[in-house]
Amino acid sequence: MTVLETTRVTRSDAEGLEGIELRLLKAAVDATGEAILITDADVHEDGPRIVYANPAFTRLSGYETHEVIGRSPRFLQGSGTNRGIIDRMHDALAVGKSFQGEALNYRRDGSTYVVEWLITPVHDADGIITHWVSVQRDVTERRAFEDRQAMMVRELHHRVKNTLATVQAVLNATLRSSVSMAEFGRAFSGRIISLARTHALITEDESQVASFEGLLRAELEPYNENGRISLRGPALLLFSQLAVPVGMALHELTTNALRHGALAHPGGRIVVTWTVEDETDGPCLVWVWNEHDGPPPSLPTREGFGTRVLKRILTAQAAAKVDVVFEADGLRIEVRVPLVRP
Length: 342
Hints:
This protein has helices at residues 3-31, 55-61, 65-68, 83-94, 140-177, 181-204, 212-220, 240-259, 305-318, and strands spanning 35-40, 50-53, 99-106, 112-123, 129-138, 209-211, 229-232, 237-239, 269-279, 282-292, 321-327, 330-338.
């Protein structure tokens, strides 16, 4: 075999090997779950033109390959796309740098998705950029999760500030209404435990809400022997801004019933009913607390903390209207709470 023939065989083998490598590379790119676009190098005026789009891109965008070849990737952008990030990307590509970022894109059907892309240049043997490769990933769910987390952190920060203020108010009011340190210890401990219980119910739900019935059961269920507690009303969720003062009010009503009302008598009963009524300013929670068969109710000789919770905290924090009636059969309280979310 001559040197020329040997050279031809070697060159043929090399070209064959290169062809195999290209086919393998294309198969890998076609099979990957990441969307990939390849464009030419022109980043001026109308932008680069798409020369290749893998199947993952067509699944992500809803466009078929023949619908995107020859077009600028800018056709995926719309009114909701942040122009600042697009301008920064253009500036980076104009000087031959890679770029990584996120933007809002539009599918063929008009729906949107948040895409994270990494754009890198392809150079020829002389170091000149011939193409750009854009690897794209749908991060819509991740971004939504991060936004929810940020919202929950803001909500928690706000709620902690309110809770600390509430604890201080509870402390001061309990000191004023207690006649001994023992009474103060019992009352303050019970109120803090109730507050913690309400916060636990709120935190368990991703939307930071608590069931009104859940708040009632948390306070009254331990005393429901022989069916002496009756709860009737529709399923209702309260946002944290309402759940905290409502939970405190229910704790005070339960404590008062244990010490002076229906729960202080073996045959005493409590019936709580609630409805949601439509009013001019929006829906309103109306709940009625009825005590029956307990000791005869007596008018209070001084305003205790429980009364202040009902008349002040509910009014100030929940814009509630409270009506207290001392009937012959027992205490009756009607509370109306607007359900408009702050």
